[in-house]
Structure formats: C-alpha cells, structure tokens
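Moderator note: this is an archived Q&A kept for reference. The question asked for a predicted structure of one protein chain; the sequence and the answer are reproduced below.
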Amino acid sequence: MSGAVLPFRSTARPHGRTFGGALAGAAALLSLMVAMSLALLTPTPAQSQTTRITKVTSPGGIEAWLVHDTTLPLIALEFAFMGGAAQDPADVPGVASLAASLLDEGAGDMPAEAFHRELADKAIELHFDAGRDEVRGSVRTLSENRDTAFDLLRLAVTHPRFDTEAVERIRTAQLAALRRRSTEPNAIASLQWFAKAFPNHPYGRPVDGTLESVPKINTDHLAAFAAKNLARSNLKVAVVGDITPEELGKQLDRIFGALPANATLTPVANVKPQGLGTVDVVPLEVSQSVVMIGTDGLDRQDKDFIPAYVLNHILGGSAFSSRLFKEVREARGLAYSVYSYQVALEHVGLWFAGTATKNERTAESLKIIAEEFAKIIDEGPSQTELDEAKAYLTGSYALRFDTSSKVAGQLLQIQIDKLGIDYIDRRNALIEAVTLDDLKRVAGRLASAKSTLTVVVGKPTGLSGG
C-alpha cells in the first residue's frame, strides 16, 4: 500500500491462465462491481469501512481478510507466500520464478492439458507470480464454480507436478523472454542497478534468472522450493465476493490445510544500497538513453513513510504537477517522461527516479534531476505544493478499489505491509495530517538521497562510468 511502482520487471509469460466464457459475460456488469468496490471508501454513518472487512480464522487456524459482497456472483481470492526469489539458491537464480510459472501446469493426478481444460470449462482464472519477497497467487471464479476453483488451487499449491514436458516448455518461454530483455534498455537498467546496489545479497540477483542459470534449474530445485516456501506460517490471504465468513473458514482449510505448518526459509539480511555516488554506463546502440537513479529510502514500517510518500509525490510522483516534470520536460524539453517513486521491499527501503532522453542531453538531464533532489531535501516544498499533493493523493485513493480484484489485492498488500485491518479508514487521515514541518524532518532524514547510484543504458555523450 505504499503507492510504490516497482522497477521494471517483465515475466517470461503471464503466470497463470485466463479464460473467458461466463466471466466475460459478467464483465458487462463492471459498473456494478465499481459501485460495490467504491462503497468501501464511502460507507454510511452506521457502517465504517473497517466493519466491511472481516478477519476470518479457519478451524485449522488459517487467517484471511474478507469483504463479503453478493452484488455479483463472483469471488476474487488473492494470496501470498512470503519468501519469493530471495530464497533462490545463490548460484541458481530464477528458481522461484520458474516454479511459480509451473504451479498451474498440472497438479495432483491431472497433467497440464487436463488441468487447463478444467479451468477453461469452468471459466476460472488462476494466476501465479514470483517477486523478490513473495510468491503471489490469485483465483477469480463464478460462485457456482467455487468448489472446482478452490480444488484446483488446492492441488496447485499442495501437489504441483513439475512434469518434464511442462518444465521444458516454460523454461523455453522464460529463456526467450530473457533474450528479449537483454536488448531492452529499461530491463537492462533495472538488472544492472540491483546488481550494483546489492552485491552478494539476494536482491542483487535477477528474479527471473539468467540465460546461464535457467538451463541449470531441475525438478529437484523446483520441488525443494515448493516444499520449503509454500507453507501455512508464511501465508497471507484476502477474499472479496460472494462467500460468507463461515464458508470461507471451511474453504481455507480445504485449500491450504494440507500445506506444511512452517516454511523453511533462509534468513535474508536487512541491507543498504551500495555504490552511491557513482554512475554506471551500459553501452547500447539506441537513440535515447534510459536513466535509472536510485538511493536509500525508508522502510514501509517507518513512522515517516507517509510524509516521505507525500514528499516524493511533490518531487516526481505526479505526471503533470511534479517538480521533475516541470523542470525536465516543461521548462527544458529534455524528456517526455520523468518520475520518481518509492519502493519498500521487505529488507530495504529505496527511492528512485528515472527518465529517457536523447543521448546528447543525458548529462544535462542528470544534472537537473540531481539539483531537484537536492533542492527539495534542502529547502522543502511550499504550502501550496503540500496542499495540492494532499488533494491528489486522498482523492485518487478510491481508484485502487474499482474492481473486486483490486480490492482483494489492496487487502493483501495491507497485510504484507503490516499496516493493520483499519488502514483503509486511516490512510487518508494520515496524509491529511502531514505538515511542512513533517516534510522538513523527513527531508533531513533523507539527506543521503543526494548521493545516488545511477545507471545509464545507451550512448550518452559527456558521461563515463562502468
């Protein structure tokens, strides 16, 4: 719920199956779903937002957050197993990503083709993905097909097959994606930045692996990852739709009850980015250079995270009113797009800025961005900028809740960020409470942000590095 936009990372393929049928027909009722979701943010006086979110604990002790709504006969379930690609073997990155891609490629006594056919016949959407800190999954289904959907999910997480045919097919797709990404400036910049910032740490390894590591992944790696990481102790669940708390409690045990009680996770150390104060140039024959600038930020649990979030919005978080937009694009025409954003990973907080500009204007763009970073830290924003930021950030919050899937995703992220079940109630008030003194204080804490690790991909003139 940080509002963060994570650095570029595409996946080898969409991790999951999406089918039309009855769900496509239900999409015609989108306006009803929007009304249902926005009701979370505009409760009647007699019913607060928090009372719409019920904490459900199954008979077996599995916890989920539920928004029970019967506006449409649909159920959206989002879940995460904490751990993710940070649990990959140091010498074989990409295991978590490949394993997540394969969870819907057959399970139990159903090979991939039969598993996919059952999903399609019942118009069930099933999706898995791996990030640095978690493996996520989602199910969307018509209420009438929930038993089948939940049973297929149960098989996928408790009895994945990792059949040779499926492994080789998905491996080939992942390698093809890596080859494409090897010539994409944004992808190169992100990979290079994290590798330079976090040497000898799991965050420095590519989530999807490398052209050298992915061919080395075998079924033993995949099975070991699933056995160690898919467990009840590191599981978080959010559900929105046509299911009661009592029914959900039973289904939680049915889906996840057979998982191991405890995950066997390798400890991951908290970390700070290295290489600050340096510029790394990656030569690439393109007409525009892609710039990725990163530095130290705040953890999501830090009491100053919300003031830092507001400060970032003023610097580069808004497409049209931010300082970076005005100075880099409007005043000088250096780039079409320029932005800044926060990233709150489990073991580090980061602050990024980025742009793409003509090779011959890259050095000038970097100079202006650095000056704006320093200026907002040294001088802080104006009251007008603060008022405008508050109005935008509070007014746009409802847009994160315009479908049942988005609502479930937000509830899951709130759990991951450990913000509390009442966060939706409190969030806008936290932003409204931010003062100029708060921004000055957090700017002082972020003074080190004036020293950055910069990665430039292209053929910039007037820059050197490596």
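Archived answer notes: The longest strand covers residues 335-345.
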